[in-house]
Each structure stands twice: as structure tokens, then as C-alpha cells.
């Protein structure tokens, strides 16, 4: 599989440059990227395996829809994963890990008066990478990343709905509560902070996506 083509098509799907339900033409994509159909087919099969696309016989490859019920189930699964990441982070964090998270927090705070969704997404990714590095479990990271990918589009499509500063404050609060637990070496509190941050995140998205109050827990 061509990793560069895979990353670019995946990026287009995640950032909604390819809309949910859009048909991706294998021949057109092969011409665009200057490759034969075989490597393009390998990329599309990989995206299908990741549930970002769906192979339809005699039609082509369709970008999967954002199905809220599926997203809810995915968030429910993420709760246990995030809790375990938090526990390991509290037990294994070094001063270097804590310092790097503080640096990420400073970068996030600078977005309070500068609306930049792409920058906020990158802050989120940097923070997650740092947590995974601290936890030191590659299998846990792989599962966490896959589940995160499945829910990313739902977050991104709602990112412009509501007040920008509220989004930044929520990110800062997530970083602060996680960091506090890690600094105290309190695995229970850090695990709880990770789960509660994810539940608040889901509730905000649901309120914006469905237009209903976000007060029902996962």
C-alpha cells in the first residue's frame, strides 16, 4: 500500500473534503495520484477496513456516513480505553512528559482569541500523542487511535457550531484535569478525568449535532 496516498485520502475524508456518502472513483483517483489501479485499490480497501469507506459492488467506494448511533457506541467503547490511558499516564509520567503537556497547554491557551479550527485539532492530536507516549502501550495506542478516527468527523463537523472560546476552554479543562492527576501520581483521578472529559465532549457534540440538551450520560 502506498502510505502517502493513504494518508492524503484519509485526511480528505476526516476533514470532510470528501463528503459522507460521496463515491470515490478508483480510476479518477489513480490518474490524480499518477499510479495504477492496484495501489489505489489497496488504499481504498484499507480505508474500508478502518470503516471510513465502504466498497459497493459495481458502484465504487463510498465515504461512510456519519451515523450518530454508531458514534455513540464508539464513544462508549472509548470510555474504557481513555480510562486505562489515564491510569498508565499517572503511574508512568516523567518530568519530561509533564513539561511537554504544559507546553501543549500554553499553545492551546493562545487560541482563545484566535479562531483556528485546524490549530485546535492539532493541539488535540499533540495532547493525545503525548498521553500515548507516556502510557507506553502500543496496542492501547492503536485501539485508541482507531476509535478516535471513527469519531473525529462528528467532532469536526460540529466544531464551528457554538462559541469558539467555549471549545478552547473545554480543551484547556481537559488538559488541566488530566495534568493535575498525573502530577499527583493519582491513577484513579487521572482515569476519571479522562473518562469525564470524553463524556463532556460527547454531550457537547450531541447537543450541537442533534439540537438536544447534552445532559444524558453515555
Question: How does this model look, in words?
Answer:
The N and C termini lie far apart (37 Å). By secondary structure, this protein is mainly alpha-helical. It is built from 9 helices and 3 strands; from the N terminus they run H-E-H-H-E-E-H-H-H-H-H-H. The chain has helices at residues 3-14, 26-33, 37-49, 68-92, 95-109, 117-135, 138-158, 164-183, 187-210; strands at 23-24, 53-56, 60-63. A hairpin with a 3-residue loop joins strand 2 (53-56) and strand 3. It folds into 2 domains: 3-63, Arc Repressor Mutant, subunit A (Orthogonal Bundle), CATH 1.10.10.10; 68-210, Four Helix Bundle (Hemerythrin (Met), subunit A) (Up-down Bundle). The chain is globular. The protein has a 3-stranded antiparallel beta sheet with strand order 1-3-2. InterPro entries: GntR_C, TF_FadR/GntR_C, Tscrpt_reg_HTH_GntR, WH-like_DNA-bd_sf, WH_DNA-bd_sf. This is GntR family transcriptional regulator.
Amino acid at each position: 500500500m502506498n502510505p502517502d496516498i493513504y494518508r492524503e485520502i484519509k485526511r480528505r475524508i476526516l476533514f470532510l473534503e470528501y463528503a459522507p456518502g460521496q463515491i470515490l472513483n478508483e480510476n479518477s483517483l489513480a490518474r490524480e495520484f499518477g499510479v495504477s489501479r492496484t495501489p489505489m485499490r489497496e488504499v481504498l480497501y484499507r480505508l474500508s477496513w478502518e470503516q471510513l469507506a465502504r466498497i459497493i459492488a459495481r458502484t465504487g467506494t463510498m465515504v461512510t456516513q456519519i451515523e450518530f448511533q454508531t458514534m455513540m457506541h464508539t464513544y462508549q467503547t472509548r470510555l474504557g480505553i481513555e480510562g486505562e490511558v489515564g491510569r498508565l499516564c499517572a503511574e508512568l509520567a516523567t518530568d519530561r512528559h509533564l513539561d511537554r503537556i504544559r507546553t501543549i497547554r500554553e499553545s492551546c491557551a493562545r487560541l482563545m482569541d484566535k479562531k483556528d479550527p485546524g490549530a485546535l485539532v492539532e493541539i488535540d492530536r499533540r495532547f493525545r500523542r503525548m498521553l500515548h507516549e507516556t502510557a507506553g502501550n502500543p496496542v492501547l495506542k492503536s485501539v485508541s487511535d482507531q476509535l478516535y478516527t471513527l469519531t473525529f468527523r462528528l467532532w469536526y463537523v460540529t466544531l464551528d457550531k457554538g462559541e469558539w472560546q467555549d471549545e478552547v476552554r473545554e480543551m484547556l479543562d481537559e488538559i488541566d484535569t488530566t495534568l493535575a492527576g498525573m502530577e499527583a501520581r493519582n491513577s484513579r483521578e487521572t482515569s476519571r478525568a479522562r473518562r469525564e472529559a470524553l463524556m463532556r465532549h460527547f454531550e457537547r457534540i450531541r447537543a450541537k449535532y442533534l439540537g438536544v440538551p447534552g445532559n444524558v450520560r453515555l
